[in-house]
Specification:
Elements: E1 2-8, H1 29-43, E2 52-59, H2 67-80, E3 83-93, H3 100-109, E4 113-119, H4 123-129, H5 135-146, E5 152-159, H6 166-178, E6 183-188, H7 196-203, H8 211-227, E7 231-234, E8 237-239, H9 246-253, E9 257-260, E10 265-267, E11 271-275, H10 279-288, E12 293-297, H11 300-311, E13 318-319, H12 328-340, E14 344-347, E15 350-353, H13 361-368
Parallel strand pairs: 1-2, 1-9, 2-3, 3-4, 4-5, 5-6
Antiparallel strand pairs: 6-8, 7-8, 10-11, 11-12, 13-15, 14-15
């Protein structure tokens, strides 16, 4: 299988914490979207005859686009690629863009899954984050989506916020579950460089949540989702059976995908490619037929370490004897230690982290890394 990712780099507002590539200016938007169509035409052959199992409109805020423009991208994908009839087609959307009319249009054009950037149901938190929607819009948009008949849908929430209590986090999860969500992506707030949040922290205007509070909220998240019947299939993702994100799962499993648009990444199975993270430079280069990306060919060691880093974040873990480089000889004692400490389980050569081990997923993966 393979996947297609389209990066729509436009947002109505800049969020306090976001370090993704985006622009709040619409200047040059149509030219950039035209360039994305040209890039897709030029690069479609890179996927060969592989069936496309997922298409993902990310960003940015794809829901800002007119439905007709989204439909045109979808039609082009179907014209150029072997898109499976049951492919998952996801659109990221913000609550302030949700209307009954737009939902009907998205569903009619073939969108099967919506990813709603809710982040919080509290007015004070949304204002602090710099979100364009308010609490009422968050609740109303979820109610509309739940009744719109999509194959699946998901919402995003953020924990580990400054001053967040366990009671506040529990309230957020209760609201989400009460609306019957089949999938949740929940992320701990991180202070990324070159963001407004990082500037606030440097000035002392914001004090980040401490690790202990954030860890307690993560534990509570796992408990609530398990009780509600949602499977913890990746560190930050929970879904009812049949509602796991195919597109994101393909990233974690190393499936090839094609990334279109500024800052978009692609993976062939052995090489990674990333486009320039600049709207005007990207548009001009595509128009002139000039290079607009860089490429890296991965060594077996690099590929092994990537698979460890992504695989240990999932409920399937990592099949150790399937890695490009055998890490077991130099890590046997480490693996025995993780199992003895209740951080991991080893069954049939597959290393899977326990709930306790998921707190340390990245650290454990890096300790197991293959050496060049």
């Amino acid at each position: 299988m393979s996947g297609l990712y389209l990066h729509i780099p436009f947002c109505q507002k800049a969020c306090t914490y976001c370090d993704f590539h985006f622009s709040t200016s619409t200047r040059g938007r149509e030219g950039l979207l035209d360039a994305m169509e040209r890039e897709l035409i030029q690069r479609a052959r890179e996927l060969g005859d592989a069936p496309v199992d997922s298409i993902y409109f990310g960003g940015g805020t794809p829901s800002l686009l007119e439905p007709a423009r989204i439909a045109a991208f979808l039609q082009l994908a179907h014209d150029l690629l072997r898109v499976r009839p049951d492919a998952e087609v996801t659109l990221e959307a913000n609550p302030d863009d949700i209307t009954a009319e737009r939902l009907a249009a998205w569903k009619a054009m073939g969108i099967t899954r919506l990813s709603l950037g809710t982040q919080s149901f509290r007015a004070d938190r949304l204002a602090w984050m710099g979100r364009a929607h308010d609490a009422e819009q968050a609740l109303r948009s979820i109610a509309l989506i739940a009744n719109a008949g999509f194959v699946s849908w998901t919402i995003d929430l953020i924990y580990g916020l400054p001053g967040m209590t366990l009671a506040e986090w529990d309230e957020q999860l209760t609201i989400a579950l009460d609306h019957g969500m089949p999938h949740l992506s929940a992320y701990a707030l991180t202070v990324e460089p070159r963001t407004a949040l990082a500037h606030q922290v440097r000035q002392g205007r914001t004090v980040p949540a401490d690790d202990e509070a954030t860890a307690a909220q993560f534990d509570h998240l796992m408990t609530r989702m398990k009780a509600a019947g949602l499977v913890h299939y990746e560190i930050s993702n929970f879904g009812r059976p049949g509602h796991f994100s195919r597109h994101n799962s393909s990233y974690w499993e190393g499936v090839p995908y094609l990334g279109i648009g500024p800052a978009a990444h692609s993976f062939s199975g052995t090489t990674r490619r990333w486009n320039v993270a600049n709207n005007s430079r990207y548009t001009a280069a595509v128009e002139k037929g000039e290079p607009f990306s860089e490429t890296e060919t991965l060594t077996p060691v690099q590929r092994t370490n990537e698979l460890l880093l992504t695989g240990l974040r999932t409920h399937r873990g990592v099949q150790l004897d399937a890695l490009p480089v055998d890490i077991r000889p130099r890590n046997e004692q480490r693996i025995v230690h993780y199992v003895a400490q209740g951080l991991a389980q080893l069954e049939g050569g597959r290393l899977v982290l326990t709930e306790r081990g998921r707190h340390f997923a990245d650290r454990i993966a890096m300790e197991l890394f293959a050496e060049a």
